[in-house]
């Protein structure tokens, strides 16, 4: 089978690997579609993503969908041909989740994630023609949801988790700073949850056009001179840019809530935080998701259309071009067709 493997910074290869065999509790999935995430781009560009550093070659990809082709011993209920996506997180055997965090499985002390170098040996991802997956990590796609849509369920789940972290959003006016793929999906998730209006802000007209397509009522190009609205009661910071934080905190209303869904750097970075105190802002983190991937699939089944976030599609043989496009300024979500032509 072919797999998309990063060997180091700037070294991406589409290479042949042995076909997987389903072990006990596993299902082999013929992957059809994969979405490129910022972490995939980071491994390719830098040989690392955040604090996770490549020590060995790594198969990329955690936003994937395909069809079951076989099951290992002890697995029932996954008939060949079943369309599935994957919950890419699996807590390690020694992971700790205190009672106070019951149910918040994204906060386990140690979690292996598809396509991650956080642990050694690394956890290969799903950018391959075939992948053996733990049965409990599979999620069946509802009737009418294609595998291409299924590959969007994971990032949509990230957005839906962020919206859930904000509390009640129905009837509220919302500001989303940063209109990359996750920011645009936060726009869609907030509207799906009943937000009265959503304003999206970014430095790129291309990104703002995608936000508009996914339901933003208003868009602001802050690089072009548009100012963030003041006194926004509920704000989502989706850019992950430390330089934006001072302005975003200033835009948050006194007593308002700011949900941080954009990944901030692991290293020290200067930014002005005074408004956090003087405006009594509640600053909430949103990390990956719990079971919102099931909510995302239900929303897709019920007609939520987020296909507008996809700007590019490439075959697996052009995976290098796919990552380059995802890293460029004229793209939003980039998909890779993983199935053999």
UniProtKB/TrEMBL annotation:
Cofactor: Zn(2+)
UniProt cross-references to InterPro entries, sorted A to Z: ADH-like_C, ADH-like_N, ADH_Zn_CS, ER, GroES-like_sf, NAD(P)-bd_dom_sf
Residue ranges occupied by any Enoyl reductase (ER) domain in the UniProt entry: 8-336
One Pfam entry name: ADH_N
Superkingdom of source: Bacteria
PROSITE patterns: ADH_ZINC (PS00059)
Keyword line: Metal-binding, Oxidoreductase, Zinc
Family that this chain belongs to: Belongs to the zinc-containing alcohol dehydrogenase family.
Annotated protein name in UniProt: L-idonate 5-dehydrogenase
UniProt organism field: Promicromonospora kroppenstedtii
